[in-house]
Amino acid sequence: MITLQHYLVVSAALFSLGMLGVLTRRNAVNVLMGIELILNSANLNLVAFSRFGTGNLQGQLFAVFVIVIAAAEVAVALAIVLTLYRLRRTPNLDEADFLRG
Amino acid sequence: MSAEAAVFYIFAAITVAAAAIVVLARSLIYSAFALLFTFFGVAGLYVLLGADFLAATQLLVYVGGILVLLLFGVMLTHKLYDLDLKSEVTQFPAAAFVAVGIFGLLYFTAVKTRWAVGPGRAPAATTVDIGRLFMGSYLLPFEAASVLLLVALMGAAMIVRRRKDA
Hints:
The structure holds 2 protein chains of 2 kinds.
Chain A: H1 4-24, H2 28-52, H3 58-88
Helix pairs in contact in A: 1-2, 2-3
Chain B: H1 3-24, H2 28-48, H3 52-76, H4 92-112, H5 127-135, H6 139-160
């Protein structure tokens, strides 16, 4: 019998792995991949609660909005990464220190 | 073990293993293609949760849109003669400690909490109901999301545009 807890544990694993990626990678595109993992884990939670909770569809609706925002976020973030690459010839985030005094 | 449990464990294993490859692979291309399997695994879990519309959306938007965009990002931020697209890893021990700690915390929260589990929703086609909700009580967020997409599109084009005067 698969219960809510099973999905929550999978989602927790996805979240932790995504956070590991965000914290350890220097490449900006790879950090974005970690953020996508985190968003997917949040979505999995929303859909799981929608399935096992009171039985309405609001969780799935929220997940659709999260997907929309993820698409917008990736488009803008990649634009920023490309601009960074054009200015510094590197996709590494710790070399983006234009504001250092 | 029931068929549902078997399918769940298969999809969960695909999802988590592919996510681990995304995070730990040395090559950016390996990470991107492992991300494909993560998205497929999550879509399978959505199907198992009775969210058919969301699974299709996941495949269309994530695999068809976001993943291709990320691959473009990988290709465009490297010189063409860079054959090995490596991604360096920093501060791994500390980050691994934090990630394992967070996973333990979330695991205990998920297992120990007495969640308010209701009657649940029997697996049924969701597309019609989701459409009605979007056009009904959630019309304002729906419109706001569409405006957000438009603004993000214009903003992204604006940011990468080469300025003539600069």
